[in-house]
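TICKET: design request
STATUS: open
ATTACHED STRUCTURE:
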């Protein structure tokens, strides 16, 4: 019932967390694979158009079949690879980069097949056929480049592999034939590639900055959540011992009482006060006293069940809620256990400090229905025990 431990400062501010740069890179690769879905359809369509142009240009059917089959096979490999990656948990930058590298290899194969198609044109091919190939390949490169703007290395590779064969083919054709048409296509291919890469870079910078901004916003929201959580924790807990404070104890009491009333069950309230705590501070200093209180808190937490609740309600005063007890004897037995636990020697800072604790208890609903009456009964029993100990000590001193 009360076993959950509130977060500490270590939990709230972990030291080993991914850097903003790593998280931005990881998110970029996730976006890349998310945007990649469906892009191979446009590649296959472009492949069909290229095949039609090459067929009209008189390319051998066998060669054309091999080329188109290779393009389809590479495209299908990309589709299956992307589907497989979608099922992977991209949790680390190293894993994401490795998967991205393999995707770039497959993309390079597809782009190379499309780019090299221009070299399949037979000698004497018409200007129209070369122009159509230029339009198809340049459009495909443009679509691919802008679709993968979040990974500059990938779209740059696509542009170069897709358009450089067009540049080289037309440069060779111009040198061989002196036809200015091929010179024009070569210049257009270079200009097209430069313009597309410049435009893609602008889109890329915007997209990457948006991802980085989103990660920074996540950091701000998470920091606000952690701060709120920490402030709430500090408001409900004792700073020295880490136990709940009186306010938290009151809230838990109300919840426990409501549950007990619904279930018809009983629970106990215990009051604990350390014996001779003031002389410890006076004799050994407050540092030893603080360690002693922390030790008491630790022992109390270990002695009770996960369903019970422990709080520090004063200087050396502690209060417990013992969940679901059957009779007075259960609380009496718990009190005896706590006296034994707290009566063991304390060695804070290596100094032997003899001390103990007086324990009182009250049972809900036999001793009261509200917190104040129950604590009053528990305090009464606790102070009666403390008084008996003092009388026994005086009697021993007189003897």
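STATUS: resolved
RESOLUTION: sequence designed for all positions
ATTACHED SEQUENCE:
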């Amino acid at each position: 019932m009360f076993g959950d431990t509130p977060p500490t400062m270590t939990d709230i501010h972990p030291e080993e967390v991914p850097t903003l740069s790593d998280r931005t890179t990881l998110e970029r690769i996730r976006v890349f694979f998310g945007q990649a879905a469906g892009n191979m359809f446009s590649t296959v369509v472009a492949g069909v158009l290229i095949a039609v142009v090459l067929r009209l240009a008189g390319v051998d059917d066998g060669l054309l079949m091999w080329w188109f089959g290779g393009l389809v096979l590479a495209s299908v490999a990309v589709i299956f690879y992307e589907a497989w990656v979608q099922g992977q948990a991209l949790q680390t930058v190293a894993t994401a980069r490795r998967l991205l590298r393999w995707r770039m290899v497959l993309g390079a194969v597809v782009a190379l097949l499309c780019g090299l198609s221009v070299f399949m044109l037979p000698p004497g091919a018409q200007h129209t056929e070369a122009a159509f190939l230029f339009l198809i390949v340049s459009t495909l490169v443009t679509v691919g480049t802008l679709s993968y703007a979040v990974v500059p290395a990938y779209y740059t590779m696509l542009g170069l592999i897709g358009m450089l064969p067009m540049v080289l083919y037309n440069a060779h054709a111009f040198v061989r034939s002196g036809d200015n048409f091929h010179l024009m296509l070569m210049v257009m291919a270079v200009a097209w590639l430069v313009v597309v890469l410049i435009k893609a870079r602008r889109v890329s910078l915007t997209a990457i900055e948006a991802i980085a901004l989103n990660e920074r916003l996540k950091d701000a929201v998470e920091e606000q959540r952690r701060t709120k959580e920490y402030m709430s924790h500090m408001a409900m807990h004792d700073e020295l011992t880490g136990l709940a404070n009186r306010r938290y104890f009151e809230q838990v009491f109300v919840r426990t009482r409501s549950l007990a009333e619904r279930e018809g069950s009983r629970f106990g309230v215990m009051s604990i006060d350390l014996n001779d705590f003031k002389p410890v501070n006076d004799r050994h200093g407050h540092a030893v006293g603080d360690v002693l209180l922390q030790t008491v808190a630790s022992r109390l937490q270990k002695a009770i069940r996960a369903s019970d609740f422990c709080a520090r309600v004063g200087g050396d005063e502690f209060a417990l809620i013992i969940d679901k007890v059957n009779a007075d004897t259960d609380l009496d037995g718990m009190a005896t256990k706590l006296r034994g636990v707290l009566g063991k020697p304390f060695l804070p800072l290596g100094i032997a400090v003899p001390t103990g604790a007086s324990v009182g208890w009250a049972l809900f609903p036999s001793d009261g229905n509200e917190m104040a009456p129950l604590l009053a009964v528990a305090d009464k029993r606790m102070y009666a025990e403390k008084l008996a100990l003092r009388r026994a000590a005086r009697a021993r001193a007189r003897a």
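CLOSING REMARK: Strands lie at 267-275, 309-312, 317-322, 356-364. The first helix runs from residue 9 to 12.
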